[in-house]
Amino acid sequence: MDFSQLSxxxxxxxxxxxxxxxKKVSVITLGGMRYKNVWKEPRHEIPADxxxxxxxxxQQAFDHGINMIETAYGYTKSExxxxxxxxxxxxxxxxxxxxxxxxxxxxxxxxxRMLEEQLKDLQTDYIDFYAWHGINTQELLETACAPGGPVxxxxxxxxxxxxxxxGFSTHAPLDVIIRAIETRMFDxxxxxxxxxxxxxxxxxxxxxxxxxxxxxxxxxxxxxxxYNPPPKLSRLTDPLHPxxxxxxxxxxxxxxxxxxFGLPKTASFELLxxxxxxxIPLSPTDALIKHRLDEQLxxxxxxxxxxxxxxxxxxxxNIAEVLRLRRLALCxxxxxxxxxxxxxxxxxxxxxxxxxxxxxxxxxxxxxxCPKNIxxxxxxxSTHKALYVDPATKKT
Length: 396
What we know:
By secondary structure, the chain is an alpha/beta fold. The chain has helices spanning 48-63, 78-89, 108-122, 138-144, 150-159, 174-182, 201-209, 231-237, 242-251, 269-272, 284-295, 319-332, 335-342, 359-363, 376-387, and strands at 15-17, 24-26, 28-30, 68-70, 98-103, 127-133, 163-169, 188-191, 213-216, 258-261.
């Protein structure tokens, strides 16, 4: 579709106060990790097709009223790409948009060095929002927030005017997120929360108590690959696209201020129009869709057990996530998404933690924390059989 033929849509975009930062942010943020070739080294060499894609996407984002750009040092080419597009290709005034980036330096000295490189790559002299990237474990929380450590250095740079506001991003268990919020060191938080993953609502509620900005990570991809929904899911959210309904669901929580969209990879600008206007609470039509989705859980007799009572199980299996992916496949036909996420488990890694259920790991499961009416071993084994893809044969 030729978006140049669309009528101006900036009036449809809505804006929210980003907590104590007092900045008005568009409820949709343009993410920076999904451009073609963006993950390939070397980080400072930008292919022509990548530059063209980013330039066109950024211009359309601004035309649709988006005023926040989000990226990270860890997204390889992304900061350099945005620096070129915003300052050279489009020549945008720095005051016309808000910029968020992230990094995970482990010391004050490394923090200062990384920020200097990021400012150079982004071709700017200040960052509106800087997040310590990936407070995913208690150990990383302690590293980030150590006396004289990286977050304290970020706060010094805030005092110097190099950073506007300091926050953190996280894929952590809920208890670690709560402890990070309670340090009172941060102005905003980037975290996962969607209809198909509501575990972090308590963290959002706590962030609201502290008047923090709340930024939702990857609602369209990690939220269920909603840009490519199975027919069943599309029927359940009719007349809305699943991506549109999920955005409305997230933004019906007044403490959620913006959702990052990896446009045009995980959504289209055309789909944005169906998100607005937003209502708090959900409109009757949107509430009916939620009722339909909730009702699907009745097709799984074990859906009420979420497995979070078994966090840090000695088996190393991420039991709660295994059971969540099982529910999505069984109740919503979201097999493709469930399979993608299941095979992303990285053992002891902290981005997608979880071991596969080998016979040895299965023997280590502590069933004392599992209700007696839940056939946990069978649920884990059957989920593995349905979702695991053998890397050698590429078959389940």
